[in-house]
Design brief:
The chain has 450 residues and is mainly alpha-helical. The protein contains 16 helices and 2 strands.
Length: 450
Amino acid sequence: MESHSEGDHVDNRIVSTWMIWGFFWAIFAPAVGILLSLKFNYPDLLSTQHSHFGRLRPVHVNGVIFGVFSAIFLGLVYYMVPKLTGVRMYRETWSKYAVWLWNGTLLLALLSVLFGYNKGLEVAELPNPLPLGLIAALVIIGIQVFMSIARRNEEKIYVSLWYIIAALVWTGINLVYGNLVVPYAAPGVNNAALHGLFLHYVVGLWITPAGLSVVYFFLPVAARSPLYSHKLSLVGFWSLAFFYPFVGIHHYLFSPIPAWTQTVAIVASVMLIIPVWTVVVNFFGTLKGNWSKFHDDFTVKLIIFGAAMYFIGSTQGSVEALRSIQKPTHFTDFVIAHSHATVFGGYVIWVLSACYYVWPRVTGAVFHESIAKASTWMIMLGISGMVFILTLQGLIQGTGLMEGTEFVDSIVSMKPYWFLRTLTGITMDVGIALVGINLLMGQRTAGTGT
């Protein structure tokens, strides 16, 4: 274990506090997902006024996005920014307000959803004015990050900082737009179009740049290899910034929304192959000549596996935006395979991988390698199995519907696949929970590292 150095600018306590919240969400939100998957086969299971599918589903989705992923990512921001700027975070005393404001607001918001307070828009279900708490937390963190960069001792701004800046700015604006504008701006089909933009901005302008910032920082430092190509990182960043704002309507093909907007969304979705493939090439190229780290280091192992799932899921997303592919796949679990491959298989795994690097350095804890190995295999086998099963059943159901199968009959034929989906989901979710439990239960050493 490395000793604490004088040049270290990281506030260890705030980083660990964010991560503890992330570990809590990593147990809670996937557990809700398991219950939801069981309800496909056993719809009356544990069903009450507050625990039926319609109330649990937004708790699961928002818990994963704003809880598991976001809490850990924001903790990593408080680790990455001081390291990349060479200065302590601006106004460090503000940090504690941000962590409790974000997680306290989310906890209250999810409880409100369980009690029936819901705006009725996907990923914008949290009742107003509670999203203002999340927005305020992002403003605090954004000011800290921008001012730290302005006061930096490092001349260059590394690519991770580009992605962090973009994620904070885009998402601060998007949360205002999705929660305070979309619900009241326009009725009917126009509202669906506006909401489609917000929903995809959460994925493409929050989760994606945030997740990529983590990999661009932790893959080189964990593998002890320089980034393969700075030019590729710039291509990936600017192509994401240019194409992603236009993809939001690709879930509304064959709808009353103007056809030209649907076509623009299709073109932009296909063009997203550029940032996806360039960043994956960059990640794999970084390990060139140093692939032994994939076997020896849990951070590297999970990042590379996550990159593979990100490549599969994102390429699948670009392809399914085509009109000819949407006919057999839309409204089936093929789409759910895509979302789980990217969000769980890519982004959540990436932030968890960074925890293996950061947690021992900010707490002095030494985790158990045997548990880490077991949880890693559970995560990889679980998400791989789930994506395969969901993709298969989606294609089976979609082609059946195109051949004239009654919708109810198509649902009945899916039940065996849903059962396998639950088993793979339990495997994956237990593995994710074990990451946090393993790190929290790790033995403490004399000091914290850097």
